[in-house]
Amino acid sequence: MLGLCHPQWLQARESRPTLPVRAKSVIFLFQWGGPSHLDTFDMKPAAPDTVRSPYTSIASSAPDIRVVEMLPEMAKRMDRVTLIRSLHHKMKNHASAGYYALSGHEPPSDDQRLRDSLDLYPAYGSVVDHLSPNRAGLPTFVSFPHVIRDGSIVPAQHASFLGKAHDPLFFPEDPNRPGFQLPELTLPKNLSPDRLQRRREMQRFVDRQTRLLEFSAAARGFDQYYQKALAMLTSNKVRQAFDVSQETDAVRARYGRTTYGQSCLLARRLVESGVKFVTVYFSNSIGGRKIGAGGWDTHGFDNTRMYKIVNKYQLPITDQTLPTLLDDLEDRGLLDETLVLWMGEFGRTPKINKNESRDHWPQCYTVLMAGGGVKRGYTYGSSDAHGMYPDENGVKPEDLAATLYYLMGIPPDTEIRDRSDRPLAIASSPILDVIA
């Protein structure tokens, strides 16, 4: 008799107070390679020539916020954003810093050779899919159009120990390509949804007969992933969300007819349809040695000086696409409930190197947030006179992670279980004072 109340006691013990959902969706614009904070959103015009950007700063629509002259359109929208100018950590290699940025958890080592592993934490979107999944065939987490790597694949682009069921719907296809569509969401002409369902039921029968699902957790994850894929294949809402051809030529042109521009447009379409977490990778490579491609890693090797590269590609594409995304979300009434997060894995050195460029600098850099319940025209934290170290309100990636989950209505102290069934908090830091 005493045991009759045990399940209810456990349920009460595990219940948590609900949080308001300020951000129904997140668009994570990951700037692979590491943008220079000193040449974008935290310029130091009074610094010495060895530190000061060769570009000038301009006033913005937000009092006391100045930005680089190469972002004139973004300057007009700074009254909608929060800048965090004091993010910092110790990871100087792209792989380790990238994992830190994509998961909110410090890697075991600062190693360029950091390998993807089921012992490392999952991506933000996979945690959201595990704790607060979408229903009725709509994906929770979508990422595109690149898998990022620096030699080896950077961890935290998938579900890791949470299992394949919580991996993102990922696709490498270019949304800017004529006739873009996802093969994953297109049935062969001779295969109807009913026939596909019968095939799936046959596969499940074979799985049961071979007892595969009983012994393999990974296989169980695949089974759930296939079930999700089947639901998406038969969902008109999902297929329509991915159909960027429904947008007018004028809208597509405003975003920019580039892979990144059309990826950001697709991100807007996805959150508008109800997808909760969308990750858009700026580039598949860290970049830095040619104009018109690659990420923000600009050391100046081989006479490819930073200020010749970002001036022609990274900054212009940012000044076209990011303001357009914010405008589009605002015009559609989506910005207040959609968190836009623009960040890289680290910043660049305050001191300009001998190649007239900048090197890796995780000790202090800037993150941009907009919508989703954060303050407008606001700066949190500050760097010192040379943009070298935090001067006020230093922020760790863990703090940013806790704030992101909090905005999505997920308590940051919520626990997930690793492969050894150990309970791990998704974040264990205080919430930043950036919430409106």
Which keywords apply here?
single chain; 436 residues; alpha/beta; Alkaline Phosphatase, subunit A; 2 domains; 8-stranded mixed beta sheet; two-stranded antiparallel sheet; 13 helices; 30% helix; disordered N terminus
List the helices and strands and how they pair.
Elements (H helix, E strand, L loop, with lengths): L5 H9 L10 E6 L26 E3 L6 E3 L3 H4 L5 E7 L6 H10 L20 H8 L9 E4 L4 E2 L1 E2 L15 E2 L22 H17 L2 H4 L1 H17 L2 H6 L7 H7 L3 H15 L3 E5 L24 H4 L4 H18 L6 E6 L3 E2 L11 E2 L3 E6 L7 E3 L1 E2 L6 E3 L4 H11 L7 E3 L5 E3 L11
Helix pairs in contact: 10-12
Describe this structure in words.
The chain is an alpha/beta fold. It has two domains: 18-176 and 255-425, Alkaline Phosphatase, subunit A (3-Layer(aba) Sandwich), CATH 3.40.720; 183-241. The protein is 30% helix and 15% strand. It has 13 helices and 18 strands. The strands form six sheets. An eight-stranded mixed beta sheet has the order 8-5-9-1-10-13-4-14, sandwiched between helices. Helix 10 (259-273) packs parallel to helix 12.
Largest sheet: 8 strands, mixed
CATH architecture of the largest domain: 3-Layer(aba) Sandwich
Distance between the termini: 50 Å
**Mean model confidence by pLDDT:** 88
Strand line-up across the major sheet = 8-5-9-1-10-13-4-14
How many beta-strand runs?
Answer: 18
Q: Would you tell me which CATH topology of the largest domain applies?
A: Alkaline Phosphatase, subunit A
Helical region count?
A: 13
Number of domains: 2
* Shape estimate: globular
